[in-house]
Please model this.
Amino acid sequence: MTTRLPITVTVNGEARERAVEPRLLLSDFLRHELGLTGTHVGCEHGVCGACTVHVDGRAVRSCLLFAVQVHGREVATVESLAAEARPETLHPLQQAFREAHALQCGFCTPGFLMSLLPFLEENPDPSEREIREALSGNLCRCTGYQNIVAAVRLAAVKLRETAP
Amino acid sequence: MTTRAFGARVLRNEDPRLLAGQALFVDDVALPGMLHAAFLRSDYAHGRLNGVDLGAVRERPGVVAVYAAEDLGDYWRPGPLLVPPPPIARAVFHERTQVPLARGKVRHVGEPIAVVVAESRYLAEDALAYLYADVEPLPAVVDLAGALAAGAPRVHDDLESNLAAHVIQEKGDWEAARAAADRVIEREYLYDRGVAAAIENRGVVANWDARGDELTIWDTTQAPVVIRNGLAAMLGLSESQVRVIAPFIGGGFGPKIMMFYPEEVVIPWIAMRLGRPVKWIEDRRENFFATSHERGQIHRAKIAVTREGKVLGVWDRFLHDTGAYAPYGLTVPINSQCTLLGPYDVPNYYSEFEAVFTNKPIVTPYRGAGRQHGVFVMERLLDAAARELGVDRVEIRRRNYLTPDQFPHDHEIIYQDFAPLTYDSGDYLPALEKAVERIGYHQFINEEKSRLEAAGKKVGLGVVSYVEGTGIGPYEGARVTVEASGKVSVATGVGTQGQGHFTSFAQVVADQLGVAVTDVRVTTGDTREFHWGCGTFASRGAVVAGNAIHAAGVAVRRKVLKLASEILEVAEDDLELGGGKVQVKGAPQSAIPLGELAARANPLRGAVEPGTEPGLESTQYFGPKAGSTASGVHAMIVEVDPETLTLEIKRYVVVHDCGRVINPMILDGQIQGGVAQGIGNAFYEQLHWSEDGQLMNASFMDYLLPTATDVPAIESDHVETPAPWNELGVKGAGEAGAIPVGALFAQALDDAFADVGLEIREIPLSPNRLFELVEEARAAISSEPP
Model:
């Protein structure tokens, strides 16, 4: 059996210690070792963006990282956005996605949400062009992106209103 | 007492779980002791399989079992023919269906040869490297045009040629139409498609519970009931011992209703044999080879027209690439053949096709399911006729539309559902006029185009029409129950892949029972909840399952009224439902909550009288006598960069008619997504094959799906011609957006390059291909004598 390496990672605010094979993908670590199955896997070659998570606050593709590479770092997944799956407890970005009908099958959605959060932090009032550029690293096969663009606009308004 | 839910923009019940990452998809299923499977697949498109050496693999770390075709014993059997050929006179059909694991021969790259089961997916894939399949490569059938040539290699040795099917359908008298025509125009067209590329790949998890004597399967299928019945028969189990769950599915688009994929057959068998749960999840590379495609057709077509542009007849002969096997029968080419007629009055039609086996993955329906090909041929013929006759392209369509007095309209040929191709209803002109007005057609061709061209821009406009036969039978069913909590549960046999059924089906019931949409819990795709039905395909969920749910809702409403009238001692007509209660009209003090009524309908003491049933529950079915015909017009303005031949879609208008609308928000979403897939098909997505049948671009790096910077905002508008043959008046909408886009691109690009006389005769295009076609057109003009 391949050697396992001990790693410590903070995931959604909670310290996790595991011994993992060096080749274990971060996406598989999150999904199958930690049971955080909200992060989805669509291509495993870094194109579709469905597996996007945050490492130290930056959006990254978890299928292109090994779990050992996040040793000592902070990882956030879609599960960190809302405590409960109820309309009123969702994050404003999630609420905007629902209100604008920006998801259909919902498989790519966690990746979109995680890509968009840092984007909206840096660009609280983005133009349509900027939104479309920001979305272009995530593939959605259901929506045609139109309602996702609308959701980002709506989320920007919501987040500006709730900003301190 | 409540506002009507049907027709309202109701937000979706399923969204919170999906958004929070708490919805269950097949790959999320984790069971104690679960094993993982990986498949050894053919590297060759065509070859003699002399044997598989499994010996070395069993010793690899973590490997539990390995199987090739011989190990399956009597369980090895070609898959079922899902759809037998329709009853068309003299139709030829050679049934050849896919096998669980290859035996004797491999017929396409990616065909499974052996399967390794190990303690993890990583270990299973490691072990694949130690499997050796002895394959002697054979020349492959790749080129569709050459597949029937004498001396071509044969995909199936026992057939005389690669002919899979040959069908002729005729209406009227083409020869007479040709003779009477002022002009007959003939063209050759190529229409190719690609992979559906749902972002979730396929997957199967199977768990044999020996103590419970039950097999549970989680499957990314669009048709869980059919999978359950088929697997029970194959495995020698009672249907009630097999539970198939299609949980949340990450996009379907057709290929997830191909049945049975080899993995769907093999994984449950292994789980039973080993007595441990087994999971197989397809990876993206496998998806390109192992999931079905839709691909090319080559058409030679003629249109006979009068000087005024009235169509007298159409003649069409085409080749259809069906891949290595044809488990889905003739569905795709029959759809092409039938949908070609579009919204037009074509009195004489001759259509003949040959479906051909090739050494490529299987072709089965993918969103549109052959309709794109037919629409492209007809719309291109009309464009060619308009150009030759000097008739405006909108005008030629207007002159040939079926008129409202011609419905129901029998086209005198057989459709994919085996019934005569009959349009139930339609009114095409208002949609065309709306689209023309909205896109500013006359202003564009009379003023704007020349102004933009003077500014050095290349711009073009397209306007095309289509119909889609939707909502075909045979049937779906549903059970509606008012629970003691006052909440309503609905169960139906179809699966859901993002269409919003948890909301639209809830809307249908909410109105009948006077409850909030959020108080209706819908279950789809779990055979333990409902085990009758067919599946989600052919834009039929809302029509067929929707009407079954409506019927069950109406029946439960009747039970509510009957019981409440007995309790309140008033006539049923004096009662009203709303706010989760039933009451005497205008007398809120009399109100009984539905939950309380449900409890009283299921008493702990007091027998159910003969002829009555306990509870407030009903199961109903709906089987349409024929489908319902949706229709629409798409219009687009496109700007082409004259240097790079890249495109920018400036405007995109859709005017769509799918009868009564349950939820306009969901409907617009379906159309937008369909158009995006159509744009991919028209200009970005193309499967590239080598001469020996290798797919050269089997990744998202090289097979280009449209991104947010490629797809424009779509301006949607609607026309409502209610479907006369179902009570809700609805028509299907799932596939429509994708169908006419290739034809629309062709016309708009012809328009942009009218100066060189460009005439597009193929889809997909790309900047490179468009450059070549423009250069060819330019060369043809300059070589013409002055």
Q: What stands out?
A: Residues 390 and 442 of chain B are 16 Å apart (CA to CA). DSSP finds 17 helices and 30 strands in chain B. The longest strand of chain B covers residues 311-323.
